[in-house]
Amino acid sequence: MNIRYWSLPTILFLIFLLSCSQKKQNAATTAEATTKNKTAAETYYTLDDFKLVKKFDTHVHINTTDAGLIKQAEEDNFRLLTINVDAPGYPDITEQQRLALEHVKAYPERIAYATSISVKDFNAPDWQNKTIAYLKDSFAKGAVAVKFWKNIGMELKDKNNKFVMVDNPQFDPIIDFISQNKRTLIAHLGEPRNCWLPIDKMTVNGDKNYYREHPQYHMYLHPEYPSYEQHIQARDHMLEKHSDVTFVGAHLGSLEWSVDELAKRLDKFPNMAVDMAARIPHFQYQSVKEREKVRGFFIKYQDRLIYATDFVFNKDRNSADVRKQAHETWSRDWKFFASDENMSVPSIEGTFNGLKLSREVIDKIYFQNAEKRFSSVNPK
């Protein structure tokens, strides 16, 4: 039909129909966009959700009566695990326990603590019995976990002046006791692989600066000490012997340099999880070139990864400075895990995009995985 012969009413009617069709199309487009936005909101957290989400930092060391870090944790919706450790420069483990219990009593919903063992008298005939007695007392007071430190393998020697590794039979009854009492064993064994590399081959600036300033701890310069591989092998052997113990490898189990290597251990040892304390930059380093691999690793092993920082708060540190550092670190890490924004951090060269993990994964790595392994235990 030639449009020249259309009547005015017909033209107006057609215009009306076209208008209705366009409105329906616009409404459908708006509905689709709304649905997508709603789905995204249900699937992912935003940066603004930081303080709304329950979180757990499972690796801090509070060696002071000052509750500043705990108060910042309250403000940022964190629970804390303060870990006693048999390390130089720290108070004796009995004093660390006293301080921890003081905070647990004052803030029972905000903080828990992990006890530790001392290897000071490791070669004495009664060392095992005394260590188990100390752990028994710690458990009665509410300790939810036990920390083994890197002096095992890096400092401790036997009667023949040989380095003692964590798979030494002397530790077997200690680990069995921890398992029987349904506590978690946290172990910092070895160091980052960078420790055994020349400085120009290291991956993150923090390691480069630290070992440049502390050559006595730079194992590349000390071949008389156990190798990186020996530490990993000893830890793996210990887990083979104690497949029933709930184990958390501190600092990504010293496998921070490769998500592939870490995945191999998580596949091999079902009782193993790892905390991220002081090792998140290593994920970020790998994300510069292989973001999707790192993101896929988090998704696949979402039940085995635990958020942690390794904050140290002692009497010589200013409370306000500690609170500021904690908030900035917690916020920056949240941005890495919850968003896909482009980021840079002082620890590494180059930029990377955040992992933008789903709410389900975030809830696990920030809280649920920790709750399973460090749930509160009521003192007897």
Overall pLDDT level? 93
Globally, the shape reads elongated
Alpha-beta content class:
alpha/beta
CATH superfamily caption of the largest domain: Metal-dependent hydrolases
Give start-end ranges of low-pLDDT stretches.
none
Number of E strands: 11
Strand coverage percent:
5-15%
Label the CATH architecture of the largest domain: Alpha-Beta Barrel
Alpha-carbon distance between the termini?
94 Å
**Overall radius of gyration:** 27 Å
CATH domain class name of the largest domain: Alpha Beta
Instruction: Please give the largest β-sheet.
Output: 9 strands, parallel
Q: Kindly state the percentage of residues in helix.
A: 40-55%
Query: What is the chain-wise order of helices and strands?
Result: HEHEHEHEHHEHHEHHEHEEHEEH
Spatial order of the strands forming the largest sheet: 8-7-6-5-4-3-2-1-9
**CATH fold label of the largest domain:** TIM Barrel
Total separate domains: 2
Please tally the helical runs, counting DSSP H or I stretches of 4 or more residues: 13
Signal peptide: 1-27
GO molecular function, one term: hydrolase activity
Domain Amidohydrolase-related: 127-372
Protein name: Amidohydrolase family protein
Concise synopsis of the structure shown:
By secondary structure, the protein is an alpha/beta fold. It has 13 helices and 11 strands.
